[in-house]
């Protein structure tokens, strides 16, 4: 199963959810891989992999499709173990921005899908963190994935943004990946005492969006886990925030 976490809006918790959902999968005994496609490398930093060399990062995996290499490494050789059992990562790289235009102009948009097809034979679950834009890398991920999870933060622009995003995903499905589905909308940083988030969720459900029925509340615990670079399931396994993310994982796995 290959899942992409994507939203064109920044600050909705894509990287946090990518790492935490993957860590939960690994803790349940599933061999799990994270691909960090965001040039900010937040998922890599979360797992203490931000200092990976270019040669060991997602940059090199793409770069070897457009420049000469004496030996082209198979995708599996970029998968770095983390300190947690069953959890691996292909670290991100800020250098991805340097080759994006050339990858695009040379029509390498399906290269990631080819790599993912091979990696899916080695891993039970693959989670992909994407940049907050529909660019070459996020499009490559959506073309190669089975499903997309869309985190939102329940503000005034959530519905408007989802309408646009839904249209674009439908177009990608029609033109590039007929099996791609929107697996769920994840309500992140949810404020239970405010009226607006509840109204937004009700509106989304009324319009038929597949909102995951477990919402993830705002909590300082998430920022603390970033600071110590430990996923919640290892940093605070009994905390209510951790349990809500586990409930989201269980909900998507049960579908």
Please characterize this protein's 3D structure.
Helix 7 (158-175) links the parallel strand 6 (147-152) and strand 7 (181-187). The chain has a single domain (2-250), classed as P-loop containing nucleotide triphosphate hydrolases (Rossmann fold). The chain has helices at 14-27, 42-46, 58-63, 96-105, 111-119, 136-144, 158-175, 195-206, 220-228, 232-235, 240-254, and strands at 2-5, 32-36, 80-81, 87-90, 125-129, 147-152, 181-187. The longest helix has 18 residues, at 158-175. By secondary structure, it is of the alpha/beta class. The chain is built from eleven helices and seven strands.
Briefly, what is this?
It contains eleven helices and seven strands. It is of the alpha/beta class and 255 residues long.
Q: What attributes does this structure have?
A:
255 residues; alpha/beta; Rossmann fold; seven-stranded mixed β-sheet; 7 strands; 44% helix; globular
């Amino acid at each position: 199963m290959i899942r992409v976490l994507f939203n064109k809006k920044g600050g909705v918790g894509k990287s946090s959810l990518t790492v935490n959902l993957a860590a939960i999968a690994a803790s349940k005994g599933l061999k799990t891989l994270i691909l960090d496609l965001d040039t900010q490398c937040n998922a890599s930093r979360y797992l203490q992999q931000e200092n990976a060399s270019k040669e060991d990062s997602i940059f090199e995996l793409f770069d070897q499709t457009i420049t000469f290499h004496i030996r082209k490494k198979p995708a599996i050789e970029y998968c770095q173990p983390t300190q947690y059992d069953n959890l691996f990562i292909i670290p991100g790289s800020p250098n991805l921005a340097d080759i994006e235009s050339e990858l695009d102009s040379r029509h390498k948009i399906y290269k990631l899908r080819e790599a993912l097809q091979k990696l899916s034979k080695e891993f039970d679950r693959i989670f992909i963190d994407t940049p907050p834009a529909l660019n070459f890398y996020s499009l490559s991920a959506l073309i190669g994935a089975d499903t997309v999870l869309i985190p939102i933060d329940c503000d005034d622009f959530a519905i408007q943004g989802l309408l646009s995003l839904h249209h674009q995903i439908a177009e990608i499905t029609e033109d590039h990946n007929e099996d791609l589905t929107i697996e769920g909308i994840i309500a992140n940083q949810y404020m239970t005492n405010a009226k607006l988030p509840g109204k937004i969720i009700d509106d989304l459900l009324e319009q038929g969006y597949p909102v995951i029925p477990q919402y993830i509340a705002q909590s300082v615990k998430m920022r603390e886990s970033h600071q110590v670079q430990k996923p919640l399931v290892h940093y605070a396994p009994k905390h209510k925030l951790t349990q809500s993310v586990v409930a989201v994982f269980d909900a998507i796995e049960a579908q």
